[in-house]
Amino acid sequence: MTPNTTIVDDYLELGLALGRHIDGLVDAYYGPPELAARVTAEPLPSPAALAERARRLLAGLEADRDLEPRRRRYLAAQVRGLRATATRLAGEAIGYVDEIEACYGVRPKLIPEDELAGAHRRLDEALPGSGPLRERYIDWRESQVVPADKLRAAVSSLAEDLQERTKQRWGLPDGEHVDFDLVSEQPWSGFNYYLGGLRSRVVINTDLPVLSTTLGRLVAHEAYPGHHTEHSRKEAGLVRRRHWHEETIFLVGTPQCLLAEGLADLGLEVAVGPNPEAMVASHLRPLGIRYDADLIAALATAGEALGAVRGNAALLLHDQGVRADDVVDYLARWGLQSRARAEKGLEFLADPTWRAYIFCYVEGLPLCRRFVNGDPARFERLISEQLIPADLAAA
Prior knowledge:
single chain, mainly alpha, three-stranded mixed beta sheet, two-stranded antiparallel ribbon, 20 helices, globular
C-alpha cells in the first residue's frame, strides 16, 4: 500500500494503471476523479511492477481484518485476475487455459464435436426446408434482418417493456436511465458503457445486419435486467449506501466479468420466462419486422449447445495454435455461420483485450443458470451482491 491510501484505493489504482497498458481493460470507472487523475499523471509503471504491486495487494488483503470476509474474498479474486494479466504483459509464460482460470475463475475444456453434431441433427429436424443444413440455416437467419430504419423503434419498444418488468420484479433505483445508440467498426455486437450516476450508454454494432432473432436478448443483456441493471443497483446499494468503492471500477480480465455476462445472458428468460419469444414478437410484429416466435423458440432449444463453438474456437486458436483461417472455417462449419459472421467472430477472439473474454459467455451463462434455477430471488443476488464464480458453484 502507498502512504495515506486504503486497500480499496490501491485496488482502484492498480486497475487504472493496468488499463493504461490495455485499451478497454477499464470497462467503467466512476470513482474519485482525483484518484484517476493521479494515476494518469504518474510515470507509466511497467507490467512487471504492476504484477508485483498485485502480489503485495494480495498479501495485504490476506492480512486485513477490517474488511468483511466475503468482500475481502471478492477483492482477492479480482486482484488475482489483474496479476495474471500484468504477468502476461510482462512476458512471463502463462498457458491460455491457466490465464482464463486466473482471470475468470473457471477452467474451460473443449466440448466434444459429438455434442455439436447432435445440435446440428436437432436443428436439421426443426428447420423447415431441405438441402444442406448450414446453407439452409444461414439463409433462414439472414432473412431475419431488422430493417435499419426500424431498428431504433424496435430497441426502444423492447427496452421500455423490459425496464418495467425489471422494475416490478426486482426494483430499479430512482433516476436510472439508458441511452441507446448505433455504432460501427467494433469487434462486439453490443456494449454497455456505464457512466456512473445511474446512467448507461448502450451501443449496438451495425457492422453486420442486426437480426430479429437476437434483438430481444441483446436489449435485455445490455440494459434490463442485464448490465445496466446490475451496475445501477450496485451503485445505489453498494457504493452509495455501503461505501464499497471497489464497485466504481469494472475491469476486464476479472471474475466480475464472468458473472456479469452470465447474468446478462440469463436476463431475458428470467425477466419474461423460459420462452420469451412471444413477448419479443409482440414488439417486433407491429413494426413490420419478421419474427416467427414458435420457430425461433424451437431453433433456440435445438441449437443451444452451439454456444460452445465460440469457446472451442478460442481454445483452438490460442491453446492449440490452429491457424486463424482454419478457426474461421471451424466457426463457419460448427456454428452454422456465414463466412462474414465467422470472420467477425474471429476478430473478437483474436483481439488482445478480449482474447480470453469469450468464456465469460460460454461458462458464465450455464453457471448463473444453475445458480438461479428459476428463482428470481437468486437472480436478485447476482445483480445486488459481490459474488465470485466459486460462490455460485458451491451453492
